[in-house]
Write a structure and sequence with these properties.
By secondary structure, the chain is of the alpha/beta class. It is built from 19 helices and 12 strands. The chain has 4 domains: about 200 residues; about 60 residues; about 150 residues, 2-Layer Sandwich (Heat Shock Protein 90), CATH 3.30.565; about 120 residues, Rossmann fold. The strands form 2 sheets. Strands 1, 2, 3, 4, 5, 6 and 7 form a 7-stranded mixed sheet that branches. A 5-stranded parallel sheet has the order 9-8-10-11-12, with helices on both faces. Helix 4 packs antiparallel against helix 5 and helix 13 runs antiparallel to helix 14.
Amino acid sequence: METPAPAGREERVQAGLIDLLFRQSRAILLANFVIPWPVAYVLREAVPGQQLLAWIGAIYALTGARLLVSRSYFRRGAAAAGPLVWAHRFTLLSILSSLLWGVIGWIGFVPEQPHLIAFVCIVLTGMSGGAVPSLSAYPPAYAGLLIAMQLPFVLRCLQQEEAIYSVYLVFAACLLGVYLYYSLVTYRALRETVSLRFENLALVEGLERERDRATAADRAKTRFLAAASHDLRQPIHAAALFTASLATLARRGDVAAAAAKGIAGKLEAALASLDGLLHGLVDVSRLDAGLVPVSRRPIHLRRMLDDLGEEYAPQARERGIPLRLAASDAWIESDPILLKRILDNFLSNALRHAPAGRVLIGCRRRGDALEIQIVDTGPGIPAGQLQTVFEEFTQLDNPQRDREQGLGLGLAIVRRLGELLGHKVGLNSVPGRGSTFWVRVPVTATATTNPAPGPVLAPSATLCIMALDDDAQILDGLAILLAAWGHEVFAGQDVEELRRRHAVAGGPPIDLVIADYRLAGGMSGSEAIARLSGYLGHAVPALIVTGDTSPERLRELTATGRIVLHKPVAPERLRIAIREATGAGGVVSGAD
């Protein structure tokens, strides 16, 4: 359910002024009950009593109606009819009431008794001036009151020929001008006060939102670190046990090939789990840092969903889950790689959580967008947890943190990818009946361009590589792996050591530098690469390896323009990076 958009600043100020109009009019309403009696007392000898009583009764009746309107306003609120509607109701009743007060300027105008005329002037002047602070919040209301209250007296003055009445007219004109001026000044002051009040409220609301956001972020960070710490420790603990087992067997003598292969496989699985978690964390950091590039283009939806269905069909058959596709021939606009990653997460979740159900890949038109849906008939998700599943390390059906069921980062990445692409992502679910994950993508015109041909792969190559890391164990492991792949390797813990070893070997041409980002002595990998390029006399292709995943560091590394690898680096990812950096296509030399 969508909430209504907040009113604009001008509408809020106007509503505040109308509210002030109703609140400040209470003094006038009280005066309407009290002042008629002394006025009637003074006029009793010049005006018949019945007329005075009828006049008082009319004022009381109209004041009662104004009280009812005011009460209705405060009980129902301005939203019931809109601020301007209430302002118009108030103004109409105010003008009618002012006309009744103006009546005494007509019936109390007795030329034979100048003191009564002076008394009428005092009453009308006092009533007009007293209304300035009360009605200036809505200028039409005060202008209507002033004109209605003074008009009968002015008309009577115009009917007289004596010069004194011209003085009264001049006095009335000056009175109108002065009161309207002060009403305008008061209105501006009230408007500024109300505007400042709303600005202060907006600032307070903004501060409260920032406070709540900071509090939520702090809680999320604590939960995130706790879950990450647990999930990181598990594969490291398993790898340590497998390594200790292999070392124990080796100390007893030669290790049988089958035993070594079995332990190595389990060790690789533990490290693969660790690698998946760390790369998931890197993905989250890259998205938070805004370092994931977006390349939008038209996508034929049916072709994309057909490919997705074919990719996951074997997994669905293995699990015994019917996978059905209901695609559309529409064209949508998005980044195909990032959009597929969203759908991969949705579909893998559906297949994992609907072991005895069915899964449907479909789409629905939503205005000028298309909603791609992954529907499953699994156990469903309670309403109170629909948004929770998009948070990091949230796995509602995996409280024991079984790593084979994932790490709980997929949907958190989906949420960030949706924000990056500007696509709404969401979830509808009914416990016991299943869930529908969806992403809404804009529809576009049919694409007319053909995709660019892929790069031509060069033959595999043996390379001469410089490896630089101040950690001796990591450096040895990297050098051994590169040598096993058939490359010539010069390894060193600093630039000077690398230069010496390279010079001793006769200074062969270097094809690639692989450098850790944080080196001893405060030197960065970028600085080390620059020094080595200066030593070699030309710019050398390079890879930077880092274990830092902070958004600031990721931005800094991206700015170098070099390929960045995040520890732990899987061997296959290292092969691909070497090929990308050096232009050596195919599989870089060596085999597992």
